[in-house]
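Hi Y.,

Following your request, here is the sequence exactly as I used it, all 338 residues.
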Amino acid sequence: MHRRYSTLAIAIAIAAGGTITPPAAAQQMEETSMALPALTIGFAPTYIADAKGFWTKRNLKVSLHDIVGIGSMNAVLAGSIDFSNSSGPTIIRANIRGQKVLGVGSTLDGLPFELIVRRDFAQAAGVTEKSPLDKRMAALKGKKISITSVNTIPHVYLRYLLQKGGLNPERDVTVVSMPPEAGIASLKGGTTDGYIQGPPWPMIAMRQADGVRLATAIRGDLPEMTPFAFNIVVTRPEVCVKRPGVCQKLLDGYLEGMLFMHEHPEESIAILAKKMPKIDPAVLEESFDLTLKWTPKTTRMNMKGLENSQELMIVGGMIKAGEKLAGFDAIVTNKFTK
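Below is the corresponding structure, written out as tokens. Let me know if you'd prefer a different format.
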């Protein structure tokens, strides 16, 4: 409800030669759009900032759009969406290909994917999560692993892991693409041997398909990949030139959401439970705790995380060594971060 200025207040202001400035709530609401490539705990800062009104209180209306996978980035490039949540490798590859996008803030500094395999396979191979990583990966020779889609970060992550076991990623393992739920069903039914996804899906696979965790970067298997620029707020460069206020409000809202996660974990989990009502509460809590560990208390871009992202891309065959960027100043900015 709009407040009315009193006649006396207006008269005094006019007599003094001043002007009336409407309160923040009465100022014009700016609008923007955000694409999310999947429903995952990794995007918790977005869900929480939206649910808690951290953008609307800054007079910014952010419409959220679920656009699967690389489609989120493509929507930004096409100009139909202003922002997306995308990974460091996605941003690096886009710029290498001449698709100019700009990272304006970071919300997750860890590589969250985990490799879950069938328990009977792990037992027959004599490997556990505590076995040497090279032995665990060598056991995958001749096996079938499901991912969401080819040439994505999970696929690159798998290629990187397989090389740890001395395997050829293109010849020694069969890779199939399917949605997370189908991947779990396939693992449970025995038509695939392994499954790679980020929280909460690995935890669900372990419970529903009696899976065994065989590799996990976010729990310490790949220290050389820590930190990792996994989730970055990305836009077209001209968006923040033309509308710097929108970019600032967006990043300020993200920071408040990230800090809220650290300061109010129980309420944060409750918000996520409404967003993902079918997820088992125990799974949701475990996924949140794991994600929170790698949720920074700043939106500043982590350059080391970008370096590690690019190294994973090279080893994992996403880009060639000769395409490597010498630096990242042209593709990310900390102008709006805190």
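Strands lie at 30-36, 60-66, 83-86, 102-108, 114-118, 144-147, 174-177, 194-197, 211-216, 231-235.

Thanks again,
Q.
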